[in-house]
Amino acid sequence: MKTILRCAVPLLTVAGIVALAPAAMAQSSKEKQLYEAAKKEGQLTWYSGVLNQQICDEVGQAFSKKYPGVSVHTIKTTSQVAFQRLLQDIKAGDVLSDVFTTTDESHVAYLEKKDLLTKYVPENEKGMSKVLRGLDPNGYYHVSWVGIVALVYNKSKVSAADAPKDWPDLTNPKWKNQIGFGSPNYSGLIGVWTVAMQNAYGWDYFEKLNKLNPLIGRSVDDPITTLNSGERQVAPGNPASAFRSAARGNPLAVNYPTSGTLIDPSPSAILKGAHHPNAAKLFMEFLAGPEYSKILAKNFEQPLRDDVPPPPGAKSLSDMKVLSPKLADIEKELPKIKEKWRDTFGN
Question: DSSP assignment of 219-268, as one string?
Answer without folding.
Answer: STTHHHHHHHHTS--EEEE-HHHHHHHHHTT--EEEE--TT-EEEEEEEE
